[in-house]
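User: Need the bound-state model for adenosine-5'-diphosphate:
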Amino acid sequence: MVLNDTELQTSLKKYFGFTTFKGLQEDVIKNVIEGNNTFVIMPTGGGKSLCYQLPALLKEGTAIVVSPLIALMKNQVDALRGISTNEDGVAHVLNSSLNKSEVKQVKQDIKEGVTKLLYVAPESLTKDENVAFLQSVKISFVAIDEAHCISEWGHDFRPEYRNLRPIIDRLGEDIPIIGLTATATPKVQEDIVKNLGIQDAKLFKASFNRPNLFYEVRPKTKNVDSDIIRFVKKNPGKSGIIYCLSRKKVEELAQMLQVNGVSAVPYHAGFDSKTRSKYQDMFLMEDVDVVVATIAFGMGIDKPDVRYVIHHDIPKSIESYYQETGRAGRDGGEGHCLAFYSYRDVEKLEKFMSGKPVAEQEIGNALLQEIVAYAETSISRRKFILHYFGEEFDEVNGEGADMDDNARNPKEKEEAGHSLVKLLKVIEGTKEKFRSKEIVKTLIGSTNALIASHKIDGKAFFGSGNEHPKEYWMALIRQALVAGFLRKEIEQYGILHITEEGKKFKENPSTFMMTKDHVYNEE
Ligand code: ADP
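Assistant: Bound-state model below.
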């Protein structure tokens, strides 16, 4: 099936009332209509839903949309109600919330060709009776929303997402697949493609840069609560979200804000659903300015004018941080993202993870190290985040280049070309087998069991960098990673490798201006 541009525009207007496509939408939609496998990576708010909704309406048969949350499905289906002349609409859900007669009705509508989009949870798709039914009807394609749930390296791993491919194969031959996600580091991206078996999929990736967001990290001291209250009071009448790790802190801080005359509500999974909806609505309807919440708050929240997102505690990964801060400035206006950081919080999170299975712990720790590096970095925070998502950013001329604390108050720089060569030589000399910790120890001449077992402490380069403290070398490694001289193999939990650029630098050293890193005083 091929549609020309005018036909596409007309359908866009007819079904959704929009006059132009947003970003990459049009190209994605054409690719899906042509029946190709497609992979879409767009930040939240980028307009992913339309990428499968419009093709579903235009193509023959029913499109299956796999979505992780019943609440999200319901929102989408409700939103689609309005676009149909049929009273029941063109979209339905098939999940555990339906009773028998509702299920029967949905199946009837699919058979009659009324249903163009069928939203299902992965669990419902695995049920034999549903598979048998779907085998008997025409499926136009399968869209997998929140596709990062496939990967253990994503921020929201769901094991049932890993079984989708064999089920899709059972539904029929050559059913096109479209995977969509708002977060995908190169690693997660690779997992998705492999697991869904869509190596041939055309990738559509929008930039993750949010130029209107201002990123800032402040040291977390014992006065953090008053620091936050002061910030909120300086921004009267503005909408803000404050994330805390624990429910107890959520309640405490909400109360403190109220006592200080700020209209605030708490939100966490410990409240019953009625209370949660009430507080959420109060925030959405602007009855209150601030919501103090755990990460239970926010999925599917689309309040355009959130002016700040504060993190009382460090989040567990850069992806989570990007998602949570992404709720600020949706309308393109101001959005201040302020995180309070103390290494003690990191230790708390590590302890928290220590009860989990080993593989999960290792992944968790590797992700945590990345957010620590973000918090401690002195380079452009935007560059750091975008690099994490596999995107280059020009910190001088890029859009939003001056929108972070490090860009506004640049730290001093120093020449470190000579040190970089030393670092590269140590990584080479240790055969690219070590993580940062062992590399730094080798540089400063301090041993541990792993170093000793590889007999590294007898090598000529052992201690070759002892003119600098370990913090200096940690900072240099972080900056060499972002500059592209080193690469970290996340699958190997952080083992450092030298890139082609790094090899060239080692052969032909030049200058490398390193930003003096900032070591926090905690109390
Ligand atoms: P995502 O799933 O990527 O977070 P959504 O699909 O929810 O994004 O879309 C975000 C918002 O953009 C929605 O309010 C949607 O109605 C709007 N939108 C999507 N496509 C267009 C378009 N072509 N023109 C105008 N608004 C659009």
